[in-house]
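User: Some background: our group keeps a shared notebook of sequences we're curious about, and every so often someone picks one and asks for a predicted structure to add to the entry. Today it's my turn. The entry only has the sequence so far, pasted here. Could you supply the structure so I can complete it?
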Amino acid sequence: MKYILIGKKENMYRIEPSTNIKLNYNCPDDEKQGTGPGSCGGKQPNSNDIPKSKLAIEMSDRGIKVPPPSKKIEAGSIDLHLKTDGGANIPIKVSGYKQDAKITIDPPFTTKTGIRISGQGQIITTKVNGKPREVLKVNTANGPAMLMINTAQVKEVTDKLPEKQYTARKVKETINSDGYPIQIERWDIDGGSRTTSTGKYLNDSELGDFLDSVGITDVSVKDAIALYEQLMETPEKLQRRKERETLSSARMQHFQDMEDMEKARY
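Assistant: Of course. Here's the predicted structure to add to the notebook entry:
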């Protein structure tokens, strides 16, 4: 018997019964999943034997390709040497990813006035001589320092950093339930924008349910959202969604009116 974690409030687990119980000593090699008690997991079904959902069939019929599996993108690093308005040479390293780049004074240096500049900085807008000006703010032992440099160059190299790829992967875990190992599956989604072009936000559960319905277990969040838009945000489906939302809103208003009328009686 196998327990599959679904994660819904009204239905936390799906139970897949086995036709017979096999212990380790009589478990075929192709059905073993590790060693020790509970390692005979049963033969896995062929993917061709698993029935496709309506959404997966629609995807095939429309010729929509399955997105490739997610891949790790290494962080980038770019060195700059910029001068302040006063002529001081500032060594800057811009590293990480385009979405969350880090600006670091590297290597640290000491100004002519004896102030040591080091660590991470951030571009902020402040007033210089009464006018708005972007500066690089860094912390020093003597408090914050505002380095007046050409911040446009920092932003330019930031755009050259690689874009971080957030992933959505179906992972398996074994949990202990009253001394018995139970294998569960859950979605591990590490971030990224979940908002579609129509403004709909998908939480982890909604995105995971969608990927389950099309049979995908490993994909970048960006590709997952693009696939959702292709399949779920066609003009016809958007119209049906609008009709459902209108009907739901009308029902809520009706119940609110009934409640107000009931209160008015007393």
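Suggested note for the entry: The first helix runs from residue 54 to 61. The two ends are 58 Å apart (CA to CA).
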